[in-house]
Every structure is written in C-alpha cells, then in structure tokens.
Amino acid sequence: FFFHPDPANRDPLWSRGLGDVYKRQVEYESVFREEENTNLITIHLEAEAHVFNYKELLDYLDKSQTSYKDEGGWLKIFLEDSDHFMFVNGLNPGKFSEEENILSTSIMTIIYSMKPKGNSVNALAEMIKFAERIAKDFSTQILDGDRNALTQQMVEHYSQIAEEFDLNNIS
C-alpha cells in the first residue's frame, strides 16, 4: 500500500517541488561557506553554575593587572601590540546588563577577530593563556568554538588558521 497525496490538498507555500529544494540547498551552502571563511576564533569557558559574576570579573581583571576596557557589559582585553580580543557573556544577550538584571553567567566566550597586518598567531597564544588562567581560577572547562573540550589538536588547528590568515594578509 502506497500513500499518494492528492495534489489539490498540498499547501502551495510548502510544496514547490524539487527545484525549490535545490535552490534552498544552494543558499544554505553559501551561508555555511561564508561562515567557514569568517575571521573569528572563539573559545568558551563553561561552568556548572553561574560562577562568572560581572563585578567579580571586573575585580579579578583589575587584581590580575589585565589591561581591559568595559564596553558596557562586553569586556575588551588588550594585547601588547595594540590588538585585543573580546571577553563576553556566552549566553544571550551576550553581555552583562544591570538594567536587565543579567549579572552572572555560567559561560563566558573569548572572541578574537583576525585582522590584516595583525599577529593572529600571537593573539591566539594570548587567548589560550588567558583562557587557561580563567579556567583555573574559576574552575571551568575550556571549550572550542563548537563547545567541545578544547584539545591540543584543536589548538593546532586554530594556530594553522591564524598562521594562514596572517600569511595571506601580510601586504
């Protein structure tokens, strides 16, 4: 017994045929290609509970003599060579907000945007050192961009991406 739907009962919005399915597939593939070519490297720090309290993080950064700027709930961490990475709330809305009573989180995300004529390899090394220090002091796990445990293999992969970016953007 085979089910043959009556074409008259199809919703025209959802039943456009295989040609439309192919067009959507091409659109999705182009979106993923653009996403793969992004110049962002992300590392997540995740805890079981809301261990990242906004005020405590600011105090911690001050005490550890980390050069940073509070960008209104987003933290810009400065590197030695006038570069920086962002240290943000890893959950929506991505920042801390006293107005919205978002003062703590269980996930923080470190984001580095690779820049032409920058030193992405050095920035990545600094990100990893920063992540390791935060993970140790706040008892958190370090995760990669896909929120899997950050492995040495993934660090090497990120390093390769950073090195290729730097080599392709020297001039």
Detail the topology: elements first, then pairings.
Elements: H1 18-36, E1 40-46, E2 52-53, H2 54-63, E3 68-70, E4 75-78, E5 84-89, E6 104-105, E7 107-113, H3 120-138, E8 141-143, H4 152-168
Antiparallel strand pairs: 1-7, 1-8, 2-6, 3-4, 4-5, 5-7
Task: Summarize the entry for a quick read.
The chain has 171 residues and is of the alpha+beta class. It is 38% helix and 20% strand. A hairpin with a 5-residue loop joins strand 4 (75-78) and strand 5 (84-89).
List the defining traits of the structure above:
171 residues; alpha+beta; two-stranded antiparallel ribbon; 4 helices; 38% helix; disordered N terminus
What would you note in describing this structure?
Helices cover 38% and strands 20% of the residues. It has 171 residues and is α+β, with helices and mostly antiparallel strands. The strands form two sheets. Strands 3-4-5-7-1-8 form a six-stranded antiparallel beta sheet, covered by helices on one side. A two-stranded antiparallel ribbon has the order 2-6. A hairpin with a 4-residue loop joins β3 and β4 (75-78). α3 runs antiparallel to α4 (152-168). The radius of gyration is 22 Å and the shape is globular.
